[in-house]
Design brief:
heterodimer; A: mainly alpha; two-stranded antiparallel sheet; B: two-stranded antiparallel sheet; binds protoporphyrin IX containing FE
């Protein structure tokens, strides 16, 4: 039976993590992630750096609307830190007793503020292209974190003969190879407090870890409960098999 | 009042004399004779019943948090996954449970096909199964629309549009399904209502399915009837124990996906909120619909006066409806493939045909995939309409054992004392 489960695990991991092809047939390179595998967890330091990258390099165009400031506790921040972090942003509230809407500093129970009030404004600010919300980005693309990393690092000169339209950039991994997002990461584009060197690769890795968490904040709870459930079921099924053998002993 | 009652407890006895549920349960789930030679493929009916209960329980709990409105549905599902206590667990169980249901039921059906369980006297049992399959498909299809992701929306649009191919009433049916002139809030609301209703209809039909089973009793790998106590064992404890083993192994399988690969059966596109203005590049239904989707798309030219689209729709529904008449299409005198030297291989060819259709369903309908799909579709129908009727006439079955006990004990009649005694206690 263990063998069957192992075989199954191999089949499944092949199916889940086998090389995904981006539209256009470019193979997306597979990378190692702290959160993959049966016991993987999110790397807290990488997530914190990822949050910083989101704030400094992405938040100007992309919302992350499903995340609340309170969720940052998952990244290892204290309630005070979260409160201070939230308070740097202003959100609209109201109506007050006079019937007026007003602005106030954000609190932990607010959602991350959005860069644009609506999709039309977002398009207007981006040459007509809509920067998608990033809350579910890792789950919403074939290839998941590998795809995200590939797109963020896939910029470069177009091969000879390829025309890139005005306002678009060439990207090896984006479907169609022309993306309306200018290269969002640059060498030393951010300065990390923990001294990590901010190469494009490092930043791509960190923001991807952060966005993987944003896509599925409960992954760690899922895996740790899974371990207990699987162990219980293994023992329980073993007992059931023993009981069944005894009961059937007189028939066979 | 009557009182042949075997119950000693006065309360149980009082109730049983008026409403014999205890006697019924005793008769149908304790003493009930089961062929002693069943293999583990006979676990899958019990497994399907378990999945049905799991789906209803998790579904009812999800419904407490879900909002059926185009503006809130997607976010309410995300809220369940992120903020509701153990909501992620409920949602993953329900989401993967749908796939588990079809895995289990498809195995259950192929078991029936292999061992000829649909043949007399089990035709109605089988036909009720086909009704169950249709209900399951409708339920799963509507359930998939509820999270209101891109595939939910576009899948619903593509599938509901099919009905417009039906002459005369087609457009009227589509409008009725939509509750308007496109897939929209009204559609979501009626699908939600029906998705909640259908499982209870399923329960009722499964009840009939089981009643029919208890009249004809289970078929078995030899495909011959039980002839006496030496051929059977009582349901309890033999099959309660054996079904429990199956349940344990199945739950391990189920839990693996829920906890370690929850999105394995899913489509990434469904994590993007529905957007009527943006068609996904490749619309695919859930995996369990893929073979039927392949059949649907296999017709590319108008045949006589029937437009291609209508023909595709007819074939797709026909591919399931044909199962209703299978008991009469199969002309063989023996049931089990074990004693049918040619059908044994034909079965596997048919199985591969179904897998091929599934693969084709996942590919864009063009090039080689389309051609394979067309060949596989033709073979699918030929299997039922030509191979099954003809094969039964020309194939010489192997000699059947004289009784179930014979091959099991290797010598006829020598049933072990314990099982026979357990059986004899109450005839
Ligand atoms: C909700 C789905 C279903 C449930 C809960 C269910 C339940 C059961 C149960 C408990 C049994 C007895 C145990 C066994 O033989 O595995 C059974 C037998 C059977 N079922 Fe189903 N069933 C379902 C769907 C179907 C479908 C879709 C079909 C075929 C189209 C089908 C055809 C049969 C047949 C032919 C038998 C008798 C098998 C034999 O005795 O060899 N069932 N079902």
């Amino acid at each position: 039976m263990l063998k069957a489960i192992k075989t199954l695990a191999v089949i499944v991991s092949l199916g889940v993590a086998g090389p995904a092809l981006a539209a256009g047939g470019v193979e997306i390179p597979k990378r190692d992630w702290s959160f993959q595998g049966l016991f993987g967890t999110y790397d807290r330091a990488a997530m914190q750096r990822g949050l910083q990258i989101y704030q400094e390099s992405c938040a100007g165009c992309h919302s992350i609307r499903l995340i609340y400031y309170r969720n940052l506790a998952d990244l290892g921040y204290t309630a005070e830190q979260i409160k201070a972090f939230a308070a740097e942003n202003e959100v609209e509230d109201g109506p007050n007793d006079e019937g007026e809407m007003y602005m106030r500093p954000a609190v932990a129970s607010d959602r991350f503020i959005k860069p644009f009030p609506n999709d039309n404004a977002a398009r207007a600010g981006n040459n007509g292209a809509l920067p998608p919300d990033l809350s579910l980005m890792v789950e919403a693309r074939v290839g998941g974190p590998n795809y995200l990393y590939a797109v963020l690092t896939g910029y470069g000169e177009p091969p000879a003969g390829t025309e890139v339209m005005d306002g678009m950039s060439y990207n090896k991994y984006f479907p169609g190879h022309q993306i309306a997002m200018p290269p969002p990461l640059s060498e030393d584009g951010v300065e990390f407090a923990d001294g990590t060197k901010a190469t494009v690769e490092q930043q791509a890795k960190d923001i991807t870890t952060f966005l993987a968490w944003a896509s599925e904040p409960n992954m760690e709870a899922r895996k740790s409960m899974g371990l207990k459930v699987m162990l219980f079921l293994l023992v329980f099924t073993g007992l059931l098999i023993a009981v069944k053998r005894r009961i059937w002993a007189d028939v066979h | 009042m009557s009182t042949g009652s075997q119950w000693k407890n006065p309360v149980i006895r009082w109730v049983d004399d008026r409403l014999p549920i205890f006697t019924y349960m005793d008769h149908e789930y304790q003493q009930f004779p089961m062929p002693r030679n069943l293999n583990y493929f006979w676990n899958f009916g019990a497994l399907a019943s378990i999945v049905l209960v799991v789906m209803v329980v998790t579904g009812v709990m999800l419904a407490m948090q879900y909002t059926p409105h185009v503006d809130y549905a997607f976010d309410s599902v995300e809220r369940i996954r992120r903020d509701v206590n153990y909501g992620w667990l409920l949602q993953y169980i329900h989401m993967n449970g749908g796939s588990m249901f079809f895995i289990v039921v498809y195995i259950h059906m192929f078991r029936g096909l292999y061992y000829g369980s649909y043949k007399a006297p089990r035709e109605l049992l089988w036909m009720l199964g086909v009704v169950i399959l249709l209900l399951m498909m409708a339920t799963a299809f509507m359930g998939y629309v509820l999270p209101w992701g891109q595939m939910s929306y576009w899948g619903a649009t593509v599938i509901t549009n099919l009905f417009s191919a039906i002459p005369l009433v087609g457009d009227w049916i589509v409008t009725l399904l939509w509750g308007g002139f496109s897939v929209d809030n009204a559609t979501l609301n009626r699908f939600y209502s029906l998705h909640y209703l259908m499982p209870f209809v399923l329960f009722a039909v499964v009840g009939l399915h089981v009643v029919a089973l208890h009249v004809s009793k289970s078929n078995n790998p030899d495909g011959i009837e039980m002839k006496g106590p030496q051929d059977s064992v009582p349901f309890h404890p033999y099959f309660t124990a054996k079904d429990s083993v199956g349940v344990g192994v199945f739950l391990l399988f189920f839990a693996f996906f829920v906890f370690y690969a929850p999105n394995f059966f899913g489509e990434p596109d469904n994590y993007i909120e529905a957007n009527p203005l943006q068609t996904p590049s490749h619309i695919v239904p859930e995996w369990y619909f893929l073979p039927f989707y392949a059949i649907l798309r296999s017709v590319t030219i108008d045949i006589l006066f029937i437009p291609a689209k209508l023909m595709g729709v007819l074939l797709m529904f026909g591919s399931i409806l044909i199962l209703f008449i299978l008991p009469w299409l199969d002309t063989a005198r023996v049931r089990s493939a074990k004693y049918r030297p040619i059908y044994k291989y034909i079965f596997w060819i048919f199985f591969v045909d179904c897998i091929a259709l599934g693969w084709v369903g996942s590919q864009p309908a063009e090039g080689t995939a389309l051609i394979i799909g067309q060949v596989a579709t033709v073979y699918y129908f030929a299997h039922f309409l030509l191979v099954m009727p003809i094969l039964g006439k020309i194939e010489t079955p192997l000699p059947l054992p004289s009784s179930i006990a014979e091959p099991v004990t290797g010598g006829g009649g020598g049933a072990s004392a314990g099982a026979a005694a357990a059986k004899m206690e109450k005839p």
